């Protein structure tokens, strides 16, 4: 190093001559790792290539071509007989491979750099590792290993960059295990169409009721037994369809006598339409307060009987599961002019939501305005649904902190003044214990369907049989019967 002014400083790195065999060994090791990784990630493609090469070598070109044509015919027959399993084995792995190569791998470095998810340390660039891409009919799922010390929240904050970077409409972030994230990029919207009907099983179910569809095309089951559900949405967002879908799904259990739905309808424009479907019904503020207090009394009577004998509730004819359905709860908790009624309603709701779960009482409440001064007990509802909301801040008010960053864009659910069904009934659900909200759509229960349920209740129409064929909205609506097994697993 020179100490003379105006002279360039020159560093001379020490050159260590590496023997050729060490360099070759390192290269061979890297090649081996790359081959093993490729086989691990693309087993179908690699075994296909391996088998083809082996058969050309062992049997000759003509016999191999014959075998290849026979295999293609077998796959075509398989696809015709069992399209779902064939797609799972061949089509979706092939699509996943293509999207891995063409979309994710090709754009990975650029998107990571622009989104600020890579790091450059002393001139060396470190990128999160793109590990696996899997596809189904609706979405791409990309598994990524984070950089050591990286936080998944940072990814959640960049979900917009990721969606635009990989050409998707949105990106949802989940954390399957520490150090990993799972990115979901929808390719087709399973919820774009109105769901007019769901398969009718006739099974009396109270724990989780089938009321719609998830964004991945699987059936959506809403848990009721052992929880309370808050449904928040702006006017016209489809709160009514959620309430009626729940009422409809509980019908078999109500008929068996193991469930009851109690309706509180302060607006008198929603639940009154199917009044006969409710075991108990209240409309005026005084009646509503009385009905809530009756639910508290039932709950306490059960708690007295269960104390020291059992710790949970099983729906029976003697102790049916009770769903207390409150439409426009804010009217009762904030807007009703009589202070005393408001206090009675709040006290009853707080008691039910804190103590009702284990004795078989569930509160399902709908409201338009999720602010705390309107419903101070919103945190007592373990499961919450955000339908279309007016403002971005309301999303976290309903679903909890960070929900919007994790992809619950309830304020961006589309709306079309000419067609009220656009985006109606679509919402994000956050269930207790799961930080990532899921996007779902409830079936649309028309006035005609409610009348039909009422007529069945009155004995004018017969009840549908268990093997009633579901009427689907269109050929494009996912076949829920095929997916039901997977939905159960999910
Ligand atoms: N699940 C759904 N699928 C498709 N369209 C729906 C669905 N639910 C509701 N709609 C459409 O949206 C309109 C408004 O629905 P609904 O009255 O249930 O909304 P809401 O949130 O209860 O409104 P409000 O708070 O004003 O009562 C309905 O008339 C219907 O056209």
Plain-language structure description:
The structure is a single chain. This protein is α/β, with parallel strands linked by helices and 490 residues long. It folds into 3 domains: 37-81; 96-188, Threonyl-tRNA Synthetase, Chain A, domain 2 (2-Layer Sandwich); 208-458, Rossmann fold, CATH 3.40.50.300. The protein has helices at residues 20-41, 43-59, 61-81, 83-115, 152-157, 159-165, 239-256, 285-306, 329-335, 339-355, 392-399, 447-457, 480-489; strands spanning 119-121, 124-126, 129-135, 139-145, 172-174, 180-186, 208-214, 219-223, 229-232, 259-264, 280-282, 321-326, 361-367, 383-386, 426-430, 438-442. The strands form 3 sheets. It has a 10-stranded mixed sheet with strand order 8-7-16-15-14-9-13-12-10-11, with helices on both faces. α3 (61-81) crosses α4 (83-115). The longest helix has 33 residues, at 83-115. Residues 194, 233, 235-241, 368, 420-421, 424-425, 442, 444 line the site of adenosine-5'-triphosphate (ATP). Adenosine-5'-triphosphate binds next to α7. This is S-DNA-T family DNA segregation ATPase FtsK/SpoIIIE. ATP binds at residues 233-240. Keywords: ATP-binding, Membrane, Nucleotide-binding, Transmembrane, Transmembrane helix.
In short:
The protein has 490 residues and is of the alpha/beta class.
Largest sheet: 10 strands, mixed
In CATH, the homologous superfamily of the largest domain goes by the name P-loop containing nucleotide triphosphate hydrolases
CATH top level label of the largest domain: Alpha Beta
Question: Uncertain spans, ≥5 residues at pLDDT below 50?
Answer: 466-490
* Count of discrete alpha- or pi-helical segments spanning 4 or more residues: 13
Determine the CATH topology of the largest domain. Rossmann fold
Mean pLDDT: 86
Shape estimate: globular
Strand content: 15-25%
Order of helices and strands: HHHHEEEEHHEEEEEHEEHEHHEEHEEHH
Q: Provide the spatial order of strands within the biggest beta sheet.
A: 8-7-16-15-14-9-13-12-10-11
Integer tally of domains: 3
Q: If classified by CATH, what would the architecture of the largest domain be?
A: 3-Layer(aba) Sandwich
- Provide the gyration radius in Å: 29 Å
Distance between the termini: 67 Å
Q: Class by helix and strand content?
A: alpha/beta
What share of the residues lie within helices?
40-55%
Counted beta strands: 16
User: Which ligands appear in the coordinates?
Assistant: adenosine-5'-triphosphate
């Amino acid at each position: 190093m020179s100490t003379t002014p105006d002279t360039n400083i020159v560093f001379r790195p020490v050159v260590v001559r590496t023997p050729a065999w060490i360099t070759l060994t390192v290269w061979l090791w890297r090649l081996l790792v790359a081959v093993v990784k490729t086989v691990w990630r693309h087993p179908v493609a690699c075994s296909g290539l391996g088998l083809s090469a082996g058969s050309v070598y062992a049997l000759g070109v003509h016999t191999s071509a014959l075998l290849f044509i026979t295999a293609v015919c077998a796959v075509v027959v398989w696809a015709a007989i069992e399209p779902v399993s064939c797609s799972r084995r061949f089509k979706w792995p092939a699509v996943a491979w293509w999207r891995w190569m063409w979309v994710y791998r090709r754009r990975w470095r650029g998107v990571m750099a622009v989104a600020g998810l890579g790091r450059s340390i002393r001139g060396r660039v470190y990128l999160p590792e793109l590990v696996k891409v899997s596809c189904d009919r609706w979405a791409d799922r990309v598994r990524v290993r984070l950089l050591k010390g990286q936080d998944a929240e940072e990814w959640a904050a960049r979900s917009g960059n990721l969606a635009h970077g990989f050409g998707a409409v949105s990106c949802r972030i989940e954390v399957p295990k520490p150090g990993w994230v799972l990115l979901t990029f929808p390719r087709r919207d399973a919820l774009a169409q109105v769901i007019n009907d769901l398969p009718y099983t006739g099974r009396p179910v109270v724990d989780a009721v089938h009321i719609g569809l998830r964004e991945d095309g699987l059936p959506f089951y809403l848990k009721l037994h052992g929880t309370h559900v808050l449904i928040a949405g702006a006017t016209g967002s489809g709160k009514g369809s959620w309430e009626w879908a729940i009422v409809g799904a509980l019908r078999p259990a109500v008929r068996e006598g193991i469930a009851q739905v109690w309706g509180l309808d302060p607006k008198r424009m929603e639940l009154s339409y199917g009044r006969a479907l409710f075991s108990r019904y209240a409309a005026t503020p005084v009646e509503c307060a009385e009905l809530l207090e009756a639910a508290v009394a039932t709950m306490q009577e059960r708690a007295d009987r269960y104390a020291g004998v059992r710790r949970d509730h099983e729906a029976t004819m003697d102790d049916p599961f009770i769903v207390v359905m409150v439409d426009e709860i804010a009217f009762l908790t904030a807007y009703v002019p009589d202070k005393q009624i408001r206090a009675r309603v709040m006290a009853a709701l707080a008691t039910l939501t804190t103590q009702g779960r284990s004795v078989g009482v569930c509160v399902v409440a709908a409201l338009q305005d999720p602010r705390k001064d309107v419903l101070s007990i919103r945190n007592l509802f373990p499961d919450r649904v955000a339908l279309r909301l007016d403002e971005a801040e309301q999303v976290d008010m309903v679903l909890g902190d960070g929900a919007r960053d994790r992809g619950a864009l309830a304020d961006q659910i589309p709306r079309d003044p000419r067609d009220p069904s656009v985006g109606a009934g679509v919402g994000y659900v956050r269930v207790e214990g799961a930080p990532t909200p899921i996007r779902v759509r409830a079936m649309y229960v028309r006035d005609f369907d409610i009348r039909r349920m009422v007529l069945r209740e009155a004995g004018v129409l017969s009840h549908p049989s268990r093997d009633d064929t579901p009427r689907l909205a269109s050929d494009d609506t996912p076949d829920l019967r095929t997916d039901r097994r997977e939905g159960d697993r999910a």
